[in-house]
Each structure stands twice: as structure tokens, then as C-alpha cells.
């Protein structure tokens, strides 16, 4: 079921009807693979007279096999049978407790009804007991005697009739009294169990007799949704949401209802149902998806628990068919999912990258080749962690060349220095220059590649695109461009620079894929400045962690997405690493991303460096980075030296004040209170010899450091290995 207004990601087997098949991985299939050519229609060689479906066969309709599952939805897999039997058990137990608690109330109610029944029975029997059949005769004779008092015969007949009535009454009352007394004695003398039986046998028909038109002996039990879900609840919720017509005063049976083609049945940790909106109501499946919040409220759950999607024609659906799964509780909380990449030795970037899992535990993998990605959301919700998963996959493929820029220049991407061909940290002036230079380098490489691909024969390059073979043969590794905290660059730049950078990013994202460029961008603030719509619209995969409202969600995921149900504002602060993944115009799914922390990521970077060294693919900044080389060689460079080099990555000289600010940004805990004197002392203790204490930058003189002085403190063998 595709998530929320969710439309199932293109090509995804969204497992709303997982009970049919075993659960499997869900690959967000962005590159629509051409469908296999359809086989030529088979010629029916069987004798024409035997074909049951021949049009002239009068029994054709009758003999036609219905195209429906033989087994009911709940019985189609072992897991489903178990889940549904358990659900039935839970429901029975719930009813037992519910009605058990109310038994005293039911008993009192029964006795009261029985009392009313007794009076009704007595009133009904009264004409018989009081021998009213004889009263009429007595009355008639009395009238005649009154008219003819002298008629002795009449007087005698009246006397006789009166006598007969009195006798009759005596007999009838006597018999009734005897029956009641006998029953009472019987009850008193009978063993206790029989007493209960007799009392039941007496009270039950009396209570039945005493019931009124609206009388209900048992309370109406409505179990919570996690115990039971019925089609009636669904209809009521849809009616309340204005998706089904309601008619005041009309009987329930006269109102239009959805027709459930499956369920509700128990499926995993929730209820699954597939239903069709009734024709004539003018409401579509998309209308249902857009009302997720109201439906959830009517069902008494949080909208995060309601996972809906359309069922498209390819899966036997239509414009009114909705697949819905209502989870028992928040499906995106619980233990972390460790990333499978953490244990992987290698990975081919041409394969879909394991990314996370959806509400029902289906694995979600994202193919990144030919794609561009954008991550957005509020701070501290797991945006960078999720974005890093895709870059991390590229670490394990030696034929991926990483270009990385982190506008905050913090610890998140620091480990990439071991691998990245270019690594830009921070958004200070020198870093902005480095970013601009990186983009120029990327654009030049892109044009070089296009020229090269154009010249290749069609037999080698049939689609004008990079292939795994061309990649190796012509040494054209996939280029992975990761930029985090884009907003830092945009806010730090002048308008003209910003326009230029946005245009360059657009070119990389739009034209780059064919040349083997994968863009992976992230920004924090969901406003037009931080997420330029022009760039966002080019991006093919968007992921948003929690944002404050639907407008912000649309800023990241695309205009109108929230109305379709792809709304990251329904997520809460607890949803770390959970986001809405939009993979196409009508495809999205809410995913809980796998967890890969900084240590795990650093280990992958180290593995990536070793892989590249072995494949001769360690290039650019990573090849010349002394601290990364020292790490790889198992040598320790004093932390202060390595961190100062990190901060001075883009600058041959730096004023002490800027250096202190950069160090604090890199590691607030360690360097937050550092001052110029202590910095100088620490560096001196680490072996740094300053050739001068003053530096000149852009014509201004001031206290500062030269990078080459710091590098000189690194062990000689490392400097040698990096070619210095
Ligand atoms: N997939 C995940 N599963 C569980 N927890 C996660 C996941 N991803 C991130 N987290 C938690 O969320 C915290 C914040 O993550 P992250 O640094 O990626 O946030 P962010 O949105 O990038 O924040 P900022 O914009 O401030 O950099 C992490 O420290 C981690 O504890």
C-alpha cells in the first residue's frame, strides 16, 4: 500500500497485499525499465470443438474460470493465517473481558425485563384466567333478566351461567397457582445447577416477552482499532471525511458504501484493506489519499499510522481503488535499523543503494545512477545521516570519485578527507572560492566526458551515456557530488555569486547524469533562498525529514506534494531519520532511513581509501591529505596539528582569530575555550615551528599561521607518501 497519499513509487511492489507473497525488498525503481517485448500470441492448436470459451459455446459463460483468488485474503499465506487467527483470539478475549465486566448490569437488566415480561404475560393471560369467555354470556343474560324480571327461565339461565363462570375462574386460578407453586417448590428443592437452569428457563422467555422495540440487553462493544477493524468503521470514517454521501434520517443500508476487494484483514502489525470508492459519488482514490488526516482522526489513530496508496491499473486497480494499511502504533519508531553498508566490503554504485525501510518493514533501496537527490528538513532530524547513506555506498566502489562540500564544515563530513577528490569545508570566503572552483572543475570534466562519449562508436556507447565498461576502460569513474548545508553557501554569497552557483548546480544536476554524475544535495531551511525552486525541480529524488508545515514540505518535496499526501509535516520530533521520499510525479513513500553514525561512516571512508589505493583511484585532495595519509598508515599526527590543517584546508595562511573560530566550529567541546596563547603553546608542543608570527592576507597584516609550517610538523614519511 503506498503510503500516504502515497502513491506507490514507480515500479515498486508496494506490499499492501503482502499476504499474497513473501515480503521482499522494495526498490524505488526510478529508471523505468522498458517492458519486455510481448510474446507473439499463441495459436491454439486444440480442436476448435473442445474450446470451452468459443463464442458459439452456449456454456462459455458458465464454464469460464473466474479470475479471482480461491482463498480468502486472510488464508493466502502462513503468516497471514497466523496473524488473523491471533487477531481473532485477541478480539474474542477483548469481548470476553468487555462483556464479563458488564455481566452484573446485564443480569439486573434481564431481571427487570423479566418482571416486565411477567406483567405482560399476566395481562395477556388475564382474560383466560378470569374466564372472560363466560363473562359475555353472563352479561347478555343479565341484560335480558333486567328487561324481563318476571321470566324465571331467564333467571335460572343467568344463575347457571354465573355458576359456570365462577367455577371456571376457580379452576383456572387454581391451576395457575398450582403451576407457580410447583415451579417454586421445584426451584427450592432442585440442586443448585438445576435451579439456575430452571430460573434461566423461566426468566429468559419472560425477559424476551418484556423487551421493547429498542431494547438492547448487551452494550454495543466497539473494540479499539488495534483489536478489530471493520468495513463499517471504514465507511463511517470516509463518510465523516465527506468522501461518501451521507443522508440524515436515512437507514444505514440505504447509504453508499465502499466495496472492499480485500479485508480488512490482519497484516503484520496492522490492518490491511483494499477498497473501491462507489461509482456515482464523484470521489476518487486521490481524494481519499488527500484526506489522510481526517480519516485517521475518524479511525481514532494518528495519521502517521495510516498508510494509503492508489492501486494502479498495472496491479489490477482503477482510479477509485485505494490500498490502506492502518498500523497498530507508530510504525517509524522502535529499534534502529543498522545500515547493511556498515558490514559490506564492496558495493557497486550501479546497484540500488540500501536506504531504509517503510512502515511495514519492506526494505527500500534507491538507485542513484542517472539521478540527482535533494535532502531537506528541520535541524537534528537526521537529514545529514540520511544523505550520507547514499554517499557512503559510493565509498565502497573504487570507481566513484567524490566531490564534497559541507557548508557548516563540522564533523559530519570530515572523514571524507580520506577519499574525497575535492573536499570543501565551511562557507567562509576561502571555502566559497573553493566551492566555485570545484564546480568549475566539475563542469569542465562534464564537457570533457560528453566530448569523449560523443566520439565513441555506437557499438561501445549505444545511448551516449556512461556504462560500467566505458567507466573502467576510459577511466571515467562515477562522479558523486555531495553538498550539505547548501543554505550556508547561499546566505554567505553575494546575489550574483549565488545565481552563478545555482546555475552551475542546475547544470550538474540536469546534464551530469548522462556523464556519470550523481548529485546529492542537502539544505536545512525550507525556504526559496535555501532551496531554489529552479534547482529543486530538476532534482529527481527528494527526501524530507520533519518540517513545520505543508508549505515547507512542498518547498523540499515539490509543489502540491502535500496535497497528494507526501507531507513531511506529519512527522514529529521523535522521527529521527524518518522522511518522505519522493521518487516521481506520483510516487512517494515514508521511509525510516538506516542508521549509520559518524564512527561507522569514518570506517567506511577508511575502507574506501584502501579500495581506491588498491585500484589506483585515490586522487585529488585525498591523495595529498597528510592527516588522511597518517590515519591510513596508522601513524598518529597530534590532534591539534590535524585539526588546524583541517581548518586551513583552503588557505595557505590564516589569521589566528579565524583559525580559532574555525577550530571552535570543527569541535566546540575541545576548542570552544581555546585562546591565541594556548593555541601557540599547543602547536609548539606538537612540533610546529613558525617561520613568522605575522601573516599578510589580502593586503592586511595580522597575527596568524602559515599552512606549510603546520605541515612541516607531520612525520616525514607521510609527507613523502603524499608527494610533498
Ligand atoms: N536513521 C536514523 N535512525 C535513528 N536516528 C537517527 C537517524 N538518523 C539520524 N538520527 C539521529 O538524529 C540526529 C541528528 O541527525 P543529523 O545530524 O543527520 O541531523 P540533521 O537534520 O542533518 O541536522 P543539522 O541540519 O543540524 O545538521 C543524529 O545525531 C542521530 O542521533
Which properties best describe this structure?
Rossmann fold, Arc Repressor Mutant, subunit A, four-stranded antiparallel beta sheet, 44% helix, elongated, binds adenosine-5'-triphosphate, P-loop_NTPase, transmembrane, ATP binding, ATP-binding, DNA binding
CATH topology category name of the domain at 368-547: Rossmann fold
Give the amount of beta strand, in percent. 5-15%
Strand order of the largest sheet: 1-7-6-15-14-13-8-12-11-9-10
Question: Quaternary state, please?
Answer: single chain
Mean pLDDT across all amino acids: 84
What is the number of helices?
26
Q: Nearest-angstrom radius of gyration? A: 41 Å
Hetero ligands = adenosine-5'-triphosphate
Description:
One of its GO terms (molecular function) is ATP binding. This is Cell division FtsK/SpoIIIE. One of its GO terms (biological process) is cell division. It holds the Pfam family FtsK_SpoIIIE. InterPro entries: FtsK_dom, P-loop_NTPase. The chain has 724 residues and is α/β, with parallel strands linked by helices. Among the domains are: 108 residues, no CATH class; 180 residues, P-loop containing nucleotide triphosphate hydrolases (Rossmann fold), CATH 3.40.50.300; 93 residues, Arc Repressor Mutant, subunit A (Orthogonal Bundle). It has 26 helices and 18 strands. An eleven-stranded mixed beta sheet has the order 1-7-6-15-14-13-8-12-11-9-10, sandwiched between helices. Helix 3 crosses helix 6. It is elongated. The site of adenosine-5'-triphosphate has 15 residues, from helix 10.
